[in-house]
Amino acid sequence: MCHVIVTCRSMLWTLLSIVVAFAELIAFMSADWLIGKAKPSNSEDVDNRIGGSQEPYRPTLGIYGRCTRISHMQLSRRDMLCGPYAENFSEIASGFWQATAIFLAMGIMILCAVAFVSVFTMCVQSIMKKSIFNVCGLLQGIAGLFLILGLILYPAGWGCQKAISYCGHYASAYKLGDCSLGWGFYTAIGGTILTFICAVFSAQAEIATSSDKVQEEIEEGKNLICLL
């Protein structure tokens, strides 16, 4: 018989697992890992004719995507064009970034699988006498290691030609040059930290759903058990 068990700790772990998976996925897809040096607008001559000022902009570069400004014929319309600069995996700018993409993708796939399974832990707490919480916590720890490897390798690719074109000639491995780090990189770091927090917190979720009070509720014949 299925017993739906909901506790504060198990629900918090489930929500954090989902948030972490989405945060890492969004960070991976973002083009805001590096914010390039300021570049002048391409419509300087138009601005001069109307007496306006030239507004510099800063293009951004991700693992496989980028955002840059395009100027239209209309005087007041300038947009940022975002999209992948690499049509396939081999066109990613650096071998280090290719390795980063692999490690991050592996970690994100594990996190997404755990997030999916975590929703069902309210009804099923163990499989083959193995606690789902403990197994998911172990998988989250492994995913966190993959994410750390990816984040360590990523700065080693700052010396590639693509990064130099955005960050200037002083850019090299682990040196930003004229660039700064964007929200995509910081989101990936924050998601990695939360991944390990989730891995540790899974043990608390296991303790909460297998406590003596829960067992008493089950023995009383209750199918829906909600505990603080």
Explain this structure.
By secondary structure, the protein is an alpha+beta fold. The protein has a domain at 9-35 and 93-220: Butyryl-CoA Dehydrogenase, subunit A, domain 3 (Up-down Bundle). 51% of the residues lie in helices and 14% in strands. The protein contains seven helices and nine strands, in the order βαβαβββαββααβααβ. The protein has helices at residues 8-29, 44-49, 95-119, 132-153, 161-167, 183-209, 212-219, and strands at 4-7, 34-35, 60-61, 65-71, 78-84, 126-127, 130-131, 180-181, 224-227. The strands form three sheets. It has a five-stranded antiparallel β-sheet with strand order 5-4-3-2-8. Strands 1-9 form a two-stranded parallel sheet. Strand 3 and strand 4 form a beta hairpin. It is elongated and about 70 Å long. The two termini are 23 Å apart.
- Count of beta strands: 9
- For the record, the CATH class of the domain at 9-35 and 93-220 is Mainly Alpha
The class by helix and strand makeup works out as alpha+beta
The backbone outline, from C-alpha atoms, is elongated
SSE order, one letter for each helix or strand: EHEHEEEHEEHHEHHE
CATH architect. name of the domain at 9-35 and 93-220: Up-down Bundle
What share of the residues does DSSP label as strand, in percent? 5-15%
Q: What is the arithmetic mean of pLDDT?
A: 83
Radius of gyration: 24 Å
CATH topology of the domain at 9-35 and 93-220: Butyryl-CoA Dehydrogenase, subunit A, domain 3
How are the strands of the biggest sheet laid out side by side?
5-4-3-2-8
Helix content bin: 40-55%
Query: What can be said about the biggest beta sheet?
Result: 5 strands, antiparallel
Low-confidence stretches: 43-53, 72-77
End-to-end C-alpha gap: 23 Å
Q: How many helical elements?
A: 7
